TrEMBL record, chain A:
Entry keyword Cytoplasm: no
Domain of life: Archaea
Organism annotation: Thermococcus sibiricus
Record's protein name: Membrane-bound hydrogenase MBH 2, subunit Mbh2J (Hydrogenase subunit)
PROSITE patterns associated with the record: PROKAR_LIPOPROTEIN
Record-annotated NADH:ubiquinone oxidoreductase-like 20kDa subunit domain positions: 21-131
Keyword Iron in record: yes
TrEMBL record, chain B:
Superkingdom, natural source: Archaea
Keywords, ordered alphabetically: Membrane, Transmembrane, Transmembrane helix
UniProt organism field: Thermococcus sibiricus
Keyword field contains Membrane: yes
Bilayer-spanning residue ranges: 15-33, 94-112
Protein name per UniProt: Membrane-bound hydrogenase MBH 2, subunit Mbh2I (Na+/H+ transporter subunit)
Length: 148, 113
């Protein structure tokens, strides 16, 4: 069967926003636009989780969105990594203990990298993606090992 | 016996066609082999992405013939309401309408003279 060689070329990222205030989201965009330009490393946002290697999640995740986030995670092909951007998703942030919040995100789906901050700077987001990349390479080796 | 059919615009040979299909199948298989082997067929990974929502049944997402006329029917709702009420599907009703309207036309054309 074919080898998973895609990480050697590029890393595709899907962004799911669950009730964030939009500040984390624009920092993600800032990481991709010319000043930081993560796309020069092949890191790019894609429109469907079915094409993605990494899931970026922002926001405190309201109860209505929890099952949708689970489904989005399920739709990603293996190996996959999840990065939580911002305090909201990491701990609940300003929405901590709110009656309509299903998060923090690691209570809904498994999380690999946390990026605290309200909002975090684009450098931190790029750093998190690099950390996720390392993790994915490890998972990729495990998957390849299983095949042989 | 020759299998080749020659026409002014080209030729057709079933053997060539079979060879082409076999080659096409082989190339498709090679592309398939390069795919992600950890892909799970029985999971959500095969379903279309609809912002995390459950995929509705095919009947619900289909564009029905009635949908094409929606704007037209909506604009002439008053007219269609009356017509639908008298459109019973019973042939005896239609014959009564036919005779009734026929009688009125006949009366207008010759009855009033
Ligand atoms: S962590 Fe702060 S900046 Fe990010 S979505 Fe929450 S409130 Fe907004």
């Amino acid at each position: 069967m074919g080898k998973l060689t895609s990480f050697k070329r590029s890393l595709w990222v899907f962004h799911a926003s669950g009730g964030s205030c939009n500040a984390c989201d624009i920092e993600i965009i800032a990481a991709l636009t010319p000043r930081y330009d993560a796309e020069r490393f092949g890191i790019k946002l894609v429109g469907s989780p079915r094409h993605a290697d990494v899931l970026l999640v922002t926001g405190a995740i309201p109860k209505d969105f929890a099952d949708k986030l689970r489904r989005i995670y399920e739709q990603m092909p293996d190996p996959k990594a999840v990065i939580v951007i911002g305090n909201c998703g990491t701990s609940g942030g300003v929405f901590y203990d709110s009656y309509n919040i299903a998060g923090p995100i690691d209570e809904i789906i498994p999380v690999d990298v946390y990026v605290p901050g309200c909002p975090p700077r684009p450098e931190a987001i790029v750093d998190a993606v690099v950390k996720a990349w390392l993790k994915l390479e490890k998972l990729e080796k495990q998957l390849e090992g299983k095949e042989e | 016996m020759s299998f080749t059919l020659t026409t002014p615009s080209g030729f057709w040979n079933p053997l060539f066609w079979v060879i082409f299909l076999a080659l096409f199948g082989l190339i498709s298989y090679l592309i398939y082999l390069r795919g992600n082997p950890s892909y799970k067929k029985e999971s959500d990974q095969v379903k279309p992405y609809l912002s995390g929502n459950i995929e509705p049944t095919k009947e619900k997402v289909q564009v029905k013939a009635g949908d094409i006329y929606w704007g037209f029917i909506e604009a002439l709702k008053g007219y269609y309401k009356v017509l639908e009420a008298i459109h019973t599907g019973d042939i005896r009703d239609y014959i009564l309408w036919y005779l009734g309207v026929g009688a009125i036309i006949t009366f207008i054309l010759i009855g009033g003279v």
